[in-house]
From TrEMBL:
Lineage, highest ranks first: Bacteria, Pseudomonadati, Pseudomonadota, Betaproteobacteria, Burkholderiales
Protein name: Outer membrane protein H.8
Signal peptide: 1-17
UniProtKB keywords: Signal
Region (Disordered): 24-50
Amino acid sequence: MKNSLVLATLFAAVALAACSKTEAPAPAPAPAPATTVVVPPAPAPAPDAGAAAAAGAANNAAASANNAAGAANASAGSADSAAKAAADAASAAKK
């Protein structure tokens, strides 16, 4: 009898839970409109004469380095051609 009472109580609880009304969740409140604050940009600083001189000096140094690299490349090319001529001469001497 005890088991049947527990089973009947369980069945009644399931039936009441299945037949109960469900409440729809409350709609979320609309977000408040965003307020935008416009901040004017800061004025650009005046160009520095020392910075311009340093940039010019750096540009001149870069040009000088480029010229030196070109000269080194040219001398490497002439050394390569001299080595090739020597190898050709040695090859011709073997024949």
